[in-house]
Automatic annotation (TrEMBL):
Organism: Bacillus glycinifermentans
Name of this chain's protein: Low molecular weight protein arginine phosphatase
Domain Phosphotyrosine protein phosphatase I: 1-144
Molecular-function annotations in GO: protein tyrosine phosphatase activity
Domain of life: Bacteria
Pfam family, one: LMWPc
UniProt record similarity statement: Belongs to the low molecular weight phosphotyrosine protein phosphatase family.
Alphabetized InterPro entries for the sequence: LMW_PTPase, Ptyr_pPase, Ptyr_pPase_sf, Tyr_phospatase_low_mol_wt
Catalytic residue list: 7, 13, 118
Keyword Hydrolase: yes
UniProtKB keywords: Hydrolase, Protein phosphatase
Amino acid sequence: MNILFVCTGNTCRSPMAEALFKSAASRKKLDVSVKSAGLFAPENGKASLYAVEALFEKNIALNHSSAPLSKEKVEWADLVLTMTEQHKHLAEREYPNHQDKIFSLKEYVKGKTGDITDPFGGSLSDYQKTRDELEHLLHQLADKLSGRAR
C-alpha cells in the first residue's frame, strides 16, 4: 500500500507524519511505502529544524526535502491523508478523479473531522505537541491497516 501525507509546505507536519508512520509501520511489519508532499511546497526545501529535533527526541531521523503535491504523487498513492480539512478540500478540488482516496488523517483514523495543529513558526514545544498528536494517530492508523483496530 502506498500512503501519501499532505500538508501546506511539506516542512513540518507531513514530513513528521511520514517519518513517524514509517517507524510505526516497520514495528507492525506493514508492507507500505510512504511519502509526503505539500500543497504549496517548494521543491527541495528543508524540513523545519524543530521538526527534525522533535523527531530526534524519539530516535527517528528526518532527512527530508520538501516536494509539491503532484498528479504523479496522487496517482501513486492508494491513500492520501491530509493534515487538515482545508488541505483535503483543496486536494479534492485539484484532483477530482481521486476523491475516493483523499481523507484528512483524523477523518480516516477516527471517523470524525479535525485538524492537526500547525507548529510552523512556533517553539520546540509546539512541534513536540504536534509530534505527539501525530504519533498517537499514526499508531492507530498502523493498527487499522494491520487489521487490529482498537
